[in-house]
From TrEMBL:
Topology with respect to the bilayer: Multi-pass membrane protein
Top-level taxon: Bacteria
Cell compartments where the protein resides: Cell membrane
Key words of the record: Cell membrane, Membrane, Transmembrane, Transmembrane helix
Keyword Membrane listed: yes
Protein name per the record: APC family permease
Segments traversing the membrane: 22-45, 51-72, 93-124, 144-162, 174-193, 213-235, 247-266, 300-322, 342-366, 372-399, 411-433, 453-472
Pfam families: AA_permease_2 (PF13520)
Biological source species: Streptomyces polyasparticus
InterPro entries: AA/rel_permease1, APC_superfamily
PANTHER family named among the record's database cross-references: AMINO ACID TRANSPORTER-RELATED, MEMBRANE PROTEIN
Length: 492
């Protein structure tokens, strides 16, 4: 039960957001600076110098998925997005699974990112000359210290998410302005004065050659784009629901431009062995190569801002997805509570932060759990491909009548989503098979194929278990009505 306001009416979500807020949330969740800064090395290790090519190829199905999200949101704006749309169009079991894997994947990502954020903050502190505080050595390589500091950052961004989503998106906007300014400047510097020759073959996907490398690179590139759909989680808090789709598309095309810009810049300044060797330190290494202190520290500061914004933008959609599931009684009543003061799902937001923090702390106590989290992050592209693919197929199924009545519109509402969904799910299955065959035994290691396959498989199995609890234990109307979600409460 929600607490009531002084007037006796239940507290409601507030419509206060516009296009800029949607762009800020989607862009922060995608975290271009973080993806470029720590992901280009992994992409180079997978597809060599064809990073720009694989990013362009990955954008095509993502664009089809975005078209599906926008079309479904116009038809049925709901903060539950894929959970609601897949449930109604394909079936409640797969609908619940879509919502579940999205939530679990994001929480695992938050647990991992909070430790990364803490480490970046410590590196920045060391760069500023602060190596010790109150007798404590500020070592960025300390997993425990990085995790604890990252949890303080997570708690801080949770507070901003609770006190009003508009305050959070405005804060994210200023972070984006700074980090993109730094990224544009340093990558532009590298493109103009880079020591490595530019080659148009970087944009040729056929130069990759190896099918497994292509599939792994494609899933990794899809993971780069992951997060733009966060804009759809606040559709019930947006003044005009059409602004949600606009914000998502603006952010998505901006991400494509930034990723191509960053990948070319890295390859103009660094050789392939350098890219692979630097790995997660790619952006800070670029700053050190191009500039002297204190300017060389700016990319690190931009990376820190990106990590903070990414954490905050992960808390917001996760709490709202759980709120939508709570309304249907597929999840507990805690998630339906709306703060009468702030008009946000405050209790759910705190609970999401607590769960992510708990996973991070358990990883400190159980060393093998840390490897499990790392394996989950490495294979989270499979989860993303699954729920994006199911949502796209839901769009094609729901609007299949357009093939007869509106052939032109059917290209956007049926054909593009269907092809994109099939492509992502097909690539996910191919890569899953590759994980299965790359090892001949099971080992608790993020490099073991069976283990990497077991983590997303466990998430999927747990989703079906929780779906059974929702249907038979909670008697959720979501299952009784074949995925027809309960009407969203009126927003204020």
């Amino acid at each position: 039960m929600n607490s009531t306001t002084t007037s006796g009416t239940p507290p409601r979500l507030r419509r206060s957001l516009g296009v800029v807020d949607g762009v800020a949330l989607a862009a922060s969740s995608t975290a271009a600076t973080t993806s470029i800064g720590i992901g280009m090395g992994a992409l180079a290790a997978t597809v060599g110098l064809q990073a720009p090519a694989i990013l362009l190829v990955a954008f095509l199905p993502i664009l089809g998925i975005a078209t599906a999200y926008a079309r479904l949101n116009r038809s049925e704006p709901n903060m539950g997005s894929g959970y609601v749309w897949v449930g109604k169009s394909i079936g409640p079991w797969l609908g619940f699974l879509t919502g579940w894997v999205t939530l679990v994947g994001t929480i695992i990502f938050m647990a991992y990112t909070s430790a990364v954020t803490g480490s970046v903050v410590l590196i920045f502190a060391n760069k500023a000359g602060l190596h010790e505080l109150l007798g404590l050595q500020l070592d960025p390589n300390s997993t425990a210290l990085s995790t604890v500091l990252g949890l303080f950052v997570l708690a801080a961004v949770t507070v901003t998410a609770i006190t009003g989503v508009r305050h959070a998106t405005r804060f994210q906007t200023w972070l984006l302005v700074f980090e993109y300014g730094v990224l544009l400047a340093f990558c532009g510097w590298a493109i103009v004065g880079g020591t490595q020759g530019f080659d148009w073959s970087w944009f040729d996907p056929f130069a990759i050659g190896d099918g497994t490398a292509f599939a792994q690179g494609l899933v990794l590139a899809v993971f780069f784009f992951w997060g733009w759909d966060a804009a759809f989680s606040v559709t019930e808090e947006t003044k005009d629901t059409r602004d949600v789709g606009r914000g998502g598309f603006i952010a998505l095309f901006t991400m494509l431009a930034m990723f191509l810009y960053g990948s070319v810049a890295f390859q103009r300044e660094m050789s392939l062995p350098e890219l692979i060797e630097q790995g997660p330190q790619g952006l800070t290494y670029l700053g050190e190569k191009l500039a002297s202190e204190p300017w060389a520290t700016l990319p690190l500061l931009a990376l820190m801002c990106s990590a903070v914004a990414s954490l905050q933008s992960s808390v917001i959609p996760t709490a709202r997805g759980l709120h939508a599931m709570g309304r249907d009684r597929t999840m507990g009543p805690l998630w339906t509570k709306i703060s009468p003061r702030y008009g946000s799902p405050a209790a759910g937001t705190v609970a999401v932060m607590t769960v992510a923090a708990g996973v991070s702390l358990l990883a400190l106590a159980i060393p093998k759990l840390n490897e499990m989290i790392l394996a989950a992050v490495n294979s989270i592209g499979l989860i993303v491909a699954l729920y994006y693919g199911l949502t796209a197929l839901a769009c094609a199924v729901r609007f299949r009548s357009d093939l007869r009545t509106a052939p032109r519109q059917a290209v956007r509402s049926v054909l593009a989503p269907a092809l994109s969904g099939i492509a992502l799910i097909g690539i996910g299955c191919y890569l899953g098979h590759d994980y299965y065959t790359m090892s001949d035994h099971f080992e608790l290691s993020p490099d073991n194929g069976w283990f990497m396959l077991a983590v997303p498989s466990a998430i999927i199995v747990s989703g079906f278990v929780m779906a059974a609890v929702a249907k038979y234990g909670r008697r959720s109307p979501y299952f009784q009505k074949q995925g027809f979600s309960l009407a969203a409460p009126e927003t204020d």
